[in-house]
Amino acid sequence: MTAIGLRLVTTADEERCFELHEAAMRPYVEQIWGWDQEAQRAFHAHAFSPDRWQIVTCDGQDAGMLHVEHRPAEIYLSRIELHPDHQGRGIGSRLIRTLLDQARREGKDLTLDVLAINQRARALYLRLGLHQVAPHGENNIKIRMSARPLP
Fold first, then answer.
1. Mean pLDDT for the stretch of residues 24-51
2. In the predicted model, what is the mean pLDDT of residues 2-31?
3. What domains sit in the chain, N to C, each tagged with a CATH number?
């Protein structure tokens, strides 16, 4: 079984986080807005939150990024991005199931937003029990998804 771990991001991880983001998200960003390397680096520098982000490790290798916000009524999965070399191996499913279990224990919803064109991620979230709530964003490029805790 694959050993999955999480480690806190440090300021020294900024470039690695950008590389992971680019590997995971560039195909989708290109389809929607086009990939402008300078603009993407500026966006990343603005959003970079080493105190809130975690790096997903897989058998000791950096495999992706995770950012979870614990809000009063929900657990919001702000970011889950896995490098393509680590996709399709059950890593994302295991991470999301852990969050679903936590949300259930706390009596909260698990919510997230997914790019509408990311059919693979949407299919995963649906398989794990989330449902589509509503499209939103400019030209409905995102879909809000949620899972309510069972009574």
1. 95
2. 95
3. 4-147 (3.40.630.30)
Place of tokens 């560039």: 26
Break the chain down into helix, strand, coil percent, rounded to 5: 40, 30, 25
The terminus-to-terminus CA distance of the chain in angstroms comes to 32
Q: Give the Cα separation of 77 and 7 in Å (integer).
A: 17
Question: Please, which pLDDT band fits residue 2 given cuts at 50, 70 and 90?
Answer: confident
Angstrom distance (rounded) from CA 75 to CA 1: 27
Task: Flag whether the pTM goes above 0.85.
Answer: yes
The beta strand positions in the chain, using DSSP E, are 4-8, 53-58, 61-70, 74-82, 109-115, 131-136, 142-147
